[in-house]
Amino acid sequence: MHKKEISEHILDQYRGLTAVEAWGEQSFFYNPDGRLPRGVYFATLKDKDGDNDKSSKLSRDGVFRFNFGITKSSYEKALGKRPARPAAGGVVNTGHDFTQLNILLPHPVYAWMSWVCVLNPNNAMIQDLAPLLNESYDLVVKKYAKRIKSY
């Protein structure tokens, strides 16, 4: 799948999301009524290496990374114990090759927060990710409700 197809799929499947282009990535925020300045992060599509995030080697032609957060229990079921937070500008220490395509991986920087990623997921992988994406969506809906109460 291409980045654009994944973007369209995400926006079609999950209501209340907005897409924002910034920092070399397309970010998806849950903000159904626009009450928060941006909303709550749901997922990102990143196609450029950042100063503090080069481990996926997104500078390779046509390579992009799809990122999203899940629950701690789902993360640990899929990928093992969550790693410690890396030092500023560092990468989590999980032993994974963060350049592998079409495989569920810990996010190289935010795995400690239960974020995962897939580089260049194909259609079958996107379908396999559906339960985790649904869980991620449920998480952001709950986070949004909490933030609205205190906003």
Give a structural overview.
The protein has 151 residues and is of the alpha+beta class. It has a single domain, classed as Aspartate Aminotransferase, domain 1. The protein is built from four helices and six strands. A six-stranded antiparallel β-sheet has the order 1-2-3-4-6-5. A hairpin with a 2-residue loop joins strand 1 and strand 2. The longest helix is centred in the C-terminal third of the chain and has 21 residues. The protein is globular, with a radius of gyration of 15 Å. The chain starts with a helix and ends with a helix. The model has no long low-confidence stretch (mean pLDDT 96). InterPro entries: DUF6194 (IPR045676). This is DUF6194 domain-containing protein.
> DSSP helix count?
4
Largest sheet: 6 strands, antiparallel
Q: Give the tally of β-strands.
A: 6
Q: Portion of residues in helices?
A: 25-40%
Q: Specify the CATH class.
A: Alpha Beta
Q: Mean pLDDT, rounded to whole units? A: 96
**What's the architecture, going by CATH?**
Alpha-Beta Complex
- CATH fold category name: Aspartate Aminotransferase, domain 1
Strand order of the largest sheet: 1-2-3-4-6-5
Quickly give the structural class.
alpha+beta
- The coarse silhouette is globular
Succession of helices and strands? HEEEEHEEHH
Strand content: 15-25%
Low-confidence stretches: none
Give me the Rg, rounded: 15 Å
What's the number of domains?
A: 1
Rounded to the nearest angstrom, the distance between the terminal CA atoms is: 38 Å
Organism: marine sediment metagenome
Domain DUF6194: 1-147
Pfam families: DUF6194
Protein name: DUF6194 domain-containing protein
